[in-house]
Specification:
Blueprint lengths: L1 E4 L4 H10 L18 E4 L7 H12 L5 E3 L8 H16 L3 E4 L5 H11 L6 E5 L8 H7 L5 E3 L1
Parallel strand pairs: 1-2, 3-4, 4-5, 5-6
Helix pairs in contact: 3-4
Length: 150
């Protein structure tokens, strides 16, 4: 299976890297191939429009995939709209989308997948119980069939 990690707030990650603060949501040092899985991530140097379009095209080729979309809680409204549209398109094209339940990128993923109206292709994995989620997230998660609490 192939997974794609989406980190939409690259400028915040670059600012943290320059300041020496790695932050909780900075994935720049994460090596997805260390676990032996087939994972593609967009690194800062890959952020050209051509590379992003190539990655999106590869998602649509072949069989549906399992795709994980992770990101930041501190996500601009524009980035949330882009992530929501991406999630919507992925589910419409038959891909199974996984995310977490935090605000920002994760709630945008959930909103997009729900808009595609195929509950079987969305799984939300919570690092804590549903009761511990922010009210905004709990309300949204009431519409999600596949919620996993760790």
């Amino acid at each position: 299976h192939q997974a794609f990690a989406c980190v939409p707030d690259v400028r915040a990650g670059e600012a943290r890297a320059r300041s020496g603060d790695s932050g909780d949501d900075d994935l720049s040092s994460y090596d997805p191939t260390a676990s032996g899985s087939s994972t593609a991530t967009l690194q800062r140097e890959d952020m050209s429009i051509e590379e992003i379009l190539r990655q999106l095209e590869s998602i649509q080729q072949g069989n549906p995939k399992k795709i994980v979309i992770l990101g930041t809680r501190h996500c601009t409204f524009l980035h949330q709209q882009i992530v929501e549209l991406l999630s919507y398109a992925l589910v419409l094209s038959g891909n199974h989308v996984y995310t977490s339940g935090a605000v920002g990128t994760h709630t945008a993923v959930i909103r997009g997948a729900l808009r595609a109206e195929d509950q079987s292709l969305l799984t939300v994995i919570l690092p804590q119980t549903l009761r511990q989620q922010p009210l905004e997230t709990r309300t949204l998660l009431e519409s999600v069939e596949q919620v996993v609490e760790l």
